[in-house]
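Below is how a single chain appears once it has passed through the pipeline. First comes the sequence as given, then the structure the pipeline wrote out for it. We keep one example in the README because the format questions we get most often are answered faster by looking than by reading.
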Amino acid sequence: MTKDELKQRICESVDRRRSQIEGIGDQIMVNPELGFKEFETAKLVANTMEEFGFQTETGLARTGVKAVLKGKNPGPTVALIGELDSLGVADHPMVNPETGAAHACGHNAQIAGLMGAMMAIADTQAGEELAGNVVFLAVPAEEYVEVEFRRDLVKGGEITLLGGKCELIKQGHFDDIDVAMMIHTHSDSTMKKTGVSTSSNGFVSKLIRFVGRAAHSGGSPHLGINALNAAQIAINAMHAQRETFRDSDAIRVHPIITKGGDIVNVVPAEVTMETYVRGRTKEAILDANAKVDRALRAGAMAVGAKVEIETLPGYMPLANDATMVDMFEQNSEELFGEDELTKVGHRTGSTDMGDVSHLIPAIHPMMAGASGPGHSRDWHISDKEMGYLGPAKSLAMMAVDLLYGDAEGAKAVMENHDPLMSKEEYLAFQEGVFRTEVYDGETGTSEVES
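Resulting structure:
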């Protein structure tokens, strides 16, 4: 069987499995689960894999699921990836009212696409034409939410890093993978049916707590230390740094106040905040992070409060592999016609696929099928052909391109790729980000714990 014939049969299989694939995507859409809590979604994935004759590994980084198809001949290992988790969007029409979880970013479509690719590869017995292995990997916790919950998992020894793929790297589940890819749904009306960036931002995360002194807000505010004022000054100080951020570094700092006080007639004694510090390179992120820390200390100093600054590792910047981008573009043309791929340069969001891309060749392209702004109440799958079936076909076709024959495609990708970090360097960097500083604004002294 030629490569083109195999790819055609894969696409036909996806079309035959349409109702099953769409059913998976729809079922996950109405049963959203937040990161590191995707137990029911993981169960659905494992059951589907086992239905098609695969042995599964479950409970990877709490909820991850893995199955492996072995090709007829030995060769490289290609991972096809889908993300299990949802966001928290409280006003989404399909929100879980108990948890606030909602699919407003398309991870339900990723899993539908991953399962569709698995079905088609199994249906066509594609492994008989491949040299190497295909790993179907459903991963937890890409959306970096509920940061305190994840921090507590780290403190409790259940995980060591706060993102799903990051933790899978740490646990060794990417050690035997040579090439990886996934496809993310998009709802951008300015983009064509498919899209791919050159790169995207990474970030570090921060949990911040200002501690003041309570007092009667009307009768004796002079006896208090207003932690909310300290936080407001710190936020303004962050804004004052923005002109120092170089455009080329794509810095994004977006703090929120998660607690602003207790009751209105008491001077706020405790105020908590969260923020990301995003940037195009790890050097730019660390530089901006130091400026944010300076702003936080300034807020505490201004009113004589204390500030606890806990910095946590986030995600590395994404670097899409150029050789794989070319392959994806060719498949986009086969599936959707010429001129249906948008190349968008650098993007300022973040993904833990960036961490994978620092170690091995990886690609994180986008495919239409959704409407409404991402991460909003209006986001939904509006075109199941593009949202569910398109990714299934594209993932499976890429696996064939990489491993068909003697795996010439994967070997070319690997030969042309220069890793940005070794696993040891990556873990040393991420684990080195952990830092807690307690700064006393009255005395100007700090205590630091790494």
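The radius of gyration is 23 Å.

See the next section for the split statistics.
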